[in-house]
Amino acid sequence: MTELVVNNVQKWLGGLQILKGASFTAERGSIVALLGASGSGKTTLLRCVAGLEQPEVGSIVIGGKTVLDGEKKLALPPEQRNIGLVFQSYALWPHRTVKENVGYGLKLRGVNPSDIGNRVQAILDRLGLGHLADRYPSQLSGGQQQRVAICRALVYEPRVLLLDEPLSNLDAKLREEARYWIRKLILDLEICAILVTHDQSEALAAADNILLLQDGRIVQQGGPQEIYSNPNSFYSADFLGANNIVKGKIQTVDGKAATIGGKGWSLNGTVREASGLGPAEEARAVIRVEQIKVTDAPANDGIEMDLDDSIYLGDRWEYRLRRGDFVAKAHGTKQMATGKVWAQIPPESVWVFADAQK
Ligand SMILES: Nc1ncnc2c1ncn2[C@@H]1O[C@H](COP(=O)(O)OP(=O)(O)OP(=O)(O)O)[C@@H](O)[C@H]1O
């Protein structure tokens, strides 16, 4: 069931158009990640859904209720939108206990004290914080503070939970764990969540749907696997994954099959530019690091390269490869001696785009 409908939202700030017509929907029991470069408009879009910014154009419907209609000049305040908000900073009140922090909004809304007590205790218990109800924020770890902030947003029983970089203040290990329990929580509660993040691995692991923003526009949306393995532009391809990017010229082209080459190298690849590419055009190829297989014995379909170095990364080895002005990284399971190696790179993994920066 669709909980959130955002249609053609446009927002100007300081005389600049920051959002240029964002449209998407979010389903109950799912997580939508807003991903994109710094300044692409993720937080502004989240703030528009929250009611903290008023878009000049567009409409937003939450749980069947129109909360924004640019044409009718309707813009409901955040407290009438049935949303919960979690900020990067957690924004807990330092002089209030955990239970006061979580219950304060209900008190402001005139909920009776015994109901507040029950609702606060229930959500604290659910997130494993019941025993910390009387502590102050300074007496909690970062991870616990973050859970309190999530409890405070959930205690209203919102239909949509809005999370603005909620994990970025946690250390790497806690952050990884939080992806899983937050995801499970959203699915168990059958609400929907919108997660702003600049961390691609967080978006890939936590979200059902990823919206990739560029310069105030949603340039691609889809499931994590679709976005990762089927990028529709250089921006999308470059934004996700660990990539080798090499500049060259189109040598031959036949439909989507193309050969790109530079000084001392050429590679068979696949054109992914919607408008196609012609011979002799300047181009860029994107090759995910994991798509290059390196062998120390000649391989039929392999390109001969120089291995400059093998670097130990703990769980794998990283190889630094070179041929003319084509420089690449690849991974493998064993240390390899410097010198000649063969790199197998399937043509479908050499994504060729126009070189917009030529
Ligand atoms: N109040 C404002 N006045 C003018 N410009 C603003 C204002 N707030 C944000 N912007 C601009 O809007 C653009 C989008 O900002 P926004 O914070 O939404 O991006 P973001 O994708 O969330 O970035 P980040 O990942 O760095 O947080 C940026 O260029 C920013 O400078």
TrEMBL record:
Q: What is this protein called?
A: Iron(III) transport system ATP-binding protein
Family classification: Belongs to the ABC transporter superfamily.
Q: Which terms are listed as keywords in the entry? A: ATP-binding, Cell membrane, Ion transport, Iron, Iron transport, Membrane, Nucleotide-binding, Transport
Give the GO biological process terms.
Answer: quaternary ammonium group transport
The answer to whether keyword Nucleotide-binding applies is yes
Domain (ABC transporter): residue spans on this chain: 4-240
Q: Which GO terms describe its molecular function?
A: ABC-type ferric iron transporter activity; ATP binding; ATP hydrolysis activity
Q: Nucleotide-binding: is it a keyword of this entry? A: yes
Query: What does UniProt give as GO cellular component?
Result: membrane
Q: Which InterPro entries match?
A: AAA+_ATPase, ABC_SmlMolc_Importer, ABC_transporter-like_ATP-bd, ABC_transporter-like_CS, ABC_transpr_FbpC, Mo/tungstate-bd_C_term_dom, P-loop_NTPase
Query: Which Pfam families did the record assign?
Result: ABC_tran (PF00005)
